């Protein structure tokens, strides 16, 4: 499995991530969402490099031009709700993409233990397609695993790109175990070292969904 960690090189993405982590800045929910969106745009651009391309003859007002354009129409799939700004960033660039949505949430058994529940899925057929599966945070990796299993009921994609802003080292190791090695690429803005007792990423940034859309009950 190919793993791309954007934090290993210095780019503007680092600034967006720094602002998302900063407790004094992240309370501005509009700015927080926009920074996730901008990271999605950067990732979409980079993932576009890995797609197959084909030549297309374009008629201009003066003559014909030959341009290379993507030969595939990817499916952008998002785990609700924190994944929505990341999804927007992707479709800002992949504006011809198909879209899929999965709800995955933690149902707590007690303060420190939970199960992942899937309640909703809307997706086109996925057989033979390029699937880009996005979620802002990869904590344990379980939500991503179960979302992928739910999407497989719609068909088997040819290749899977997993895109996340922050992943824990534990989640990366879990993804490596449960996703098909030969046809999965993992893209992360950064990989953080650990999870706390409540399975939150450390240092992380807190609850991305709450920071995007307000606290839930």
UniProtKB/TrEMBL annotation:
<dbReference type="GO" id="GO:0004845">
    <property type="term" value="F:uracil phosphoribosyltransferase activity"/>
</dbReference>
<dbReference type="InterPro" id="IPR029057">
    <property type="entry name" value="PRTase-like"/>
</dbReference>
<dbReference type="InterPro" id="IPR000836">
    <property type="entry name" value="PRTase_dom"/>
</dbReference>
<keyword id="KW-0328">Glycosyltransferase</keyword>
<feature type="domain" description="Phosphoribosyltransferase">
    <location>
        <begin position="9"/>
        <end position="214"/>
    </location>
</feature>
<dbReference type="Pfam" id="PF14681">
    <property type="entry name" value="UPRTase"/>
</dbReference>
<protein>
    <submittedName>
        <fullName>Uracil phosphoribosyltransferase</fullName>
        <ecNumber>2.4.2.9</ecNumber>
    </submittedName>
</protein>
<keyword id="KW-0808">Transferase</keyword>
